[in-house]
Write a structure and sequence with these properties.
Helix content of chain A: 10-25%
Number of strands of chain A: 9
Number of helices of chain A: 4
Radius of gyration of chain A: 19 Å
Order of helices and strands of chain A: EEEEHEEEHHHEE
Oligomer: homodimer
Shape of chain A: elongated
Largest sheet of chain A: 7 strands, mixed
CATH class of the largest domain in chain A: Alpha Beta
DNA sequence: CCAAAAGTGTTACTCGTACACCCATGA
DNA sequence: TCATGGGTGTACGAGTAACACTTTTGG
């Protein structure tokens, strides 16, 4: 049977929380088109790998993180005929949530790489501003009803650190006392490690790790 | 630049409510592989059309409905290397919600077509059981916080008809009186047309059309 | 009149929010 | 002892669930 063949790529929206603000990993393009412009990391899907595998491989190539430590989920697929001026490219966009990482190294075909604050972005190559906006909205929505915010935290964290993640992603301020009750009361969300820390000053705060829950009951509201 | 070329298809999960139960449009395959097995309708993306355009065209070819009358949204993309035994195929799955339609005609490359109850399905070709399950779960979730249930209704409908949609999609029963208060109280969900009908028997019911709201405040809960 | 479905009123309970208040540490 | 953030108690209002009750039609 005959059929049109298209190029298929995977693009990544890698988010982290740094200095109280949501940041995204961008790479500077080292070739045409959009030479010198900032873009989302990504690359072609290889013939022998599936879509999550391609996303995971690209993520490792860009961040150097071991696979499996970072939350990774598919967001949407974009395939307008003119979105790449060279050829027809359909791209599957993945969202990755990572704890605060060292400044990334440049990838194989990228001139440079950096964390950019989502609130103050440069013009992006291709339709990557749309991909990014959709992925950020997905992340914001998922914080409400899943324990995904813990993906931004180190293995052990305090309730205040978790709250600052929510405040950074949602761009709001939350009542620290009600937030504490809600997250510690949601079954399976947080497990105390037994330890405490005073790294935030004041009274020692209980340290938690992520619990087994996959959804939050009741959900946290923006 | 060199890159691997893949086939890209669009598959459709077309849902409707018939006889109080959720149904999906299936086609019988007229060629190998999976000859004679039931599958989701779909086809290759053409070089000159975007993804929503391909989904809309396939939908029209399978149902004969004019474009734009049916809700259509992307669900997810599937690309395991072995999901089609002939060749590498990446498929973008779309969800369509339609009012009760006449029995569909067979498409161009389908031997037959029918509405199948989602609660009692045959074995499907390829990984279409997964695509279907993901799309149905998306539809169920969206009824909670969007006015999407109206996409299953004719242009003018009663609150009871809308309630039977929710009951069919969720597989639950709902309190008719509380449901009435909730949907008529949600701003922008329903607009009275001024007319009434007794087609359900009993006291005449007010007829409504879909309102301008895109999200429901407060949401309806399962 | 009776059955059936539409639509309203009422009550008890749950949950989110706001905020007063106390606790445990470092300086 | 004071400042700082951690954590608890409590009261008020909004929203939900359960269900008694009234309304308006067809037969």
């Amino acid at each position: 049977m005959s059929h049109p063949a298209l190029a298929v790529t995977v693009d990544l929206v890698v988010l982290t929380v740094r200095a109280g603000a949501l940041h995204v990993l961008l790479v500077e393009r080292g070739e045409e088109p959009f030479l010198g412009r900032w873009a989302l990391p990504g690359g072609f899907v290889r013939p022998d790998e599936d879509l999550p595998g391609a996303a995971s491989r690209e993520l490792q190539e860009e961040t150097g993180l071991p696979r499996g430590l970072v939350h990774l989920e598919q967001v949407a697929t974009y395939g307008a005929p003119d979105r790449d001026p060279r050829q027809r490219v359909v791209t599957v966009c993945y969202l990755a949530l990572a704890p605060d990482l060292p400044v990334p190294r440049a990838g194989t075909d990228a001139a440079d790489a950096r964390w950019a604050p989502v609130a103050d972005l440069p013009d992006l190559a291709f339709d990557h501003d749309v991909l990014l906006a959709d992925a950020v909205e997905r992340a914001r929505a998922k914080l409400e009803y899943t324990p995904l915010a813990t993906a931004f935290c180190p293995p052990e964290f305090t309730v205040a650190e978790l709250r600052r993640v929510y405040e950074a992603v949602w761009g709001t301020t939350l009542d620290a006392r009600n937030f504490h009750r809600k997250v510690t009361g949601a079954a399976g969300f947080l497990e105390p490690t037994g330890g405490t820390t005073t790294r935030d000053g004041g009274r020692p705060a209980t340290l938690f790790r992520r619990g087994p829950a996959t959804t939050l009951h009741p959900p946290l509201l923006r």
